[in-house]
Amino acid sequence: MKRFVYIITDRNRKNLHVGMCTDLLKTLKFYGEMPTLFFDSAQQLNRLVYFEEINTEEQAMDRFKQVSTYTRMQKEKMIRPVNPDWVDLTIGLKHESGQKVRPSVFAGRPSIMPARRAVTF
């Protein structure tokens, strides 16, 4: 069974939390449902910025222990080559797994779209 070692952060990139799981999407959903589990609501962990897929449980546990001991600078050096803009990787995971991805803000909501009217003289 495959395991994932991941790094998740808050919107201000103030905290970097390392974790390990078997189902990454389920774990991220849990973080969303329990926003104050590790920190207060202002520091909600909701942005997946890095993950590794590892084949065996022993290798995953060794890698998790190794990454957990890293300093912040070492974790940032891991993240930057694969995710230089620190974007949330959850959307890509949902797309790959076939889950429905949230549409854009203006799609299907005509009340928000700016109205364009023809000007006649």
UniProtKB/TrEMBL annotation:
<dbReference type="InterPro" id="IPR035901">
    <property type="entry name" value="GIY-YIG_endonuc_sf"/>
</dbReference>
<feature type="domain" description="GIY-YIG">
    <location>
        <begin position="1"/>
        <end position="77"/>
    </location>
</feature>
<dbReference type="InterPro" id="IPR000305">
    <property type="entry name" value="GIY-YIG_endonuc"/>
</dbReference>
<protein>
    <submittedName>
        <fullName>Nuclease</fullName>
    </submittedName>
</protein>
